[in-house]
Amino acid sequence: MDPASIKNLIENGLDGARADVRGDDGVHFEAEVVCAAFAGKLPLARHRMVYATLGERMGGEIHALSLKTWTPEEAQTRGLGGAGDS
């Protein structure tokens, strides 16, 4: 598994999501995900939404995934680039 594949899975699985995924060893990854669907949800629920886009790959091809999740408004407030860029 590679960061580009994970990015595509997340962005295709969450309508309107923008993801920035990093990871050099092929099994441990970090992702920043911005998605309007996160509004009103606690971090655990947001993470579950992202994990759902990855399905059985979690715990298999993807050993670990560290997540930071924001709504577009939260990302803008933090002045985040990358995943928050349009």
UniProtKB/TrEMBL annotation:
According to the UniProt record, one GO cellular component term is: cytosol
Q: Which domain of life does this protein belong to?
A: Bacteria
BP terms from Gene Ontology: DNA-templated transcription
Write out the similarity annotation: Belongs to the BolA/IbaG family.
The record's listing under PANTHER family reads: BOLA TRANSCRIPTION REGULATOR, BOLA-LIKE PROTEIN 1
Annotated protein name in UniProt:
Acid stress-induced BolA-like protein IbaG/YrbA
Report the source organism: Oleiagrimonas soli
